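lol ok so funny story. i was supposed to be doing the assay writeup but got distracted and ended up predicting the structure for this chain instead. priorities right. anyway since i did it might as well share w the group, maybe its usefull for someone
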Amino acid sequence: LLVGERFQAAMDLVGLPKGLFTTLTLDHPATEKLISSRAVDHVNFTGSVAGGRAVERAAAGTFIGLGLELGGKDPAYVRPDADLDFAVEQLVDGAFYNSGQCCCGIERIYVHERIHDRFAEAFAAAASRYHLGNPLSRDTTLG
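and the output, tada:
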């Protein structure tokens, strides 16, 4: 919800013509009704495969444009010659960025066996420094 509101504020700030960009927050039935009504020209959806199927069904026969990003598996590979500190920092951020709700969030990490234990310890230590809480609080790093 907050992301949509921030996008809307940014679009309003740059002076787009009124109504060119509109953020809507709808429940599933209202979303399906809007898509199938042909009142929109394009739908961009990021989420689950089940959600993508619902969007696709609602758009069936409308010939509107659809952009569907349906849960990639985004792996990372850590070679034995990697800068371990840099790899840990980037991959912890990649896994937890946007509370993990990101279509390009790291979901699997393959680590060479020679550095696996060091990597796992460093990753766990870095992840433990995240503070789960209200995303509007300055102390929160994950939420």
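Residues 84-96 form the longest helix (13 residues). The mean pLDDT is 89.
back to the writeup now i swear
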